[in-house]
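Standup notes, structure subgroup. Blocker cleared on the phenylalanine input:
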Amino acid sequence: MAGATTQWTSRFAFLMAAIGSAVGLGNLWRFPFQTGQNGGAAFVIVYLLCVLFVAFPILMAELSVGRHKGLSAVGSTRQLALDSGKSANWSMVGWIGVLASFAILTTYSVVAGQVMAYSLMSFMGEFAGQAVNSAPQVASLYDGATHALTWHTVFIVASVAVVSAGLHGGIERVVTVLMPIFFVMLVGLSIYALSTGAAAKAISYLFAPDFSAITPLTVLAAMGQAFFSLGVGAAVMITYGSFLPKEENIGNSAGIIAGADTMVAVVAGLMIFPIIFANGLDPAAGGGLIFDALPAVFSGLPGGSFIGGLFFFLAFIAALTSAISLLLTASAVGIEQFGLSRTASAAIFGALAWTVGAATIVVTGLGNWVDFVGGSILLTTGGLLIAVFVGWIVPGKIMRDELHNTSDGLFNFWHFTVRYLAPVAVGMTLILGIDAKFNFGLSAMLGSIGGG
Ligand code: PHE
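Run returned:
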């Protein structure tokens, strides 16, 4: 399946799959609380800059690398290095990305499982009658390891089932049906939220920036969010790019994918913040923002159990179409490098991801580490390496051929960003991220210089 012979059935199928990969819990769950914790609109602006100048060029790079020979992330990077007269060891660029997507899948599935459970619980009216700010009661309905383990298992099994059914029989079928449903539901729910909630407050929170709120940590969070949300640095877009035909316009597709992903994040903000503000909740509450607070809020609204069920179902669709891209990335490597069958590869990597995810449920604190290593270190390192690889290792001529139907203007912008801007920006993000985790004091020092 990962060979050069399999291709997307249509451009529509490719775009739905790629947008499905990009749009996920990162947009519906992570973006709102990152915005809340990092100063609202100021964060949004920095985020948009990170997308435009760093994540979007890397997205183009990954799609091109994958399409070059239509191989898995590992095979693609190795082959492209060889074609450039460089060492086959450059396949480590692919390996790092694959490690990142695998690591992300482990904890992603735990959160996605909770989303699935919440959808069902909400539809069944289990949250009904909870007072707003009854977060502890809501949380107690999904208590302990048993619930989390069960739903994590259900979610992984669903992802394995889709990936082992193949690109055409599994992934394309799922995304071409679910993504259009997702968009209709998203629009419907945001209209509902804007008309029943504190719309004006939400809009100014998202769009009226207070620039003094920008610190090095804002930039760090925004860059991390841009990588995670577009899904770059994890070799997923190399894998999806490997099924692209040569005539596909990569610059154009990458623009559509990045644009759709950004739009969904902003619309998700317009769906969630009116509800948050109307109920006096704290937007900076963190990762529990959606799980602890929203069910209780929904239950107090007309038709709330149903609306809440829809909201979590929406998040489930987004999560599933992302998880299958993460799992496919590792499976494609298993098929190509280890000679596994499609089903065996999906099942083995699914089982491995399940094991690590289950460990994060049982061992307190482990999840934070896995998120740090996967979502921060490996993801940004993967992005940094891809930029360096296509910017400095692969000759510009080969990249120009791969991006043959891209305009000169876009190609030059792209080549400049992957050579200079992205390596510097991402390199600094990586250093800041490690510093912030271990409290070496660098970001605090920069913060005091910047006056933030
Ligand atoms: N972009 C996905 C989201 O926003 C997560 C993801 C990360 C997908 C990395 C692929 C690669 O939820």
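Discussed briefly. The pocket of phenylalanine is lined by residues 21-22, 24-27, 101, 104, 228-229, 231, 234, 236, 322, 325-326 (CB under 6 Å).
Next: hand off to the docking folks.
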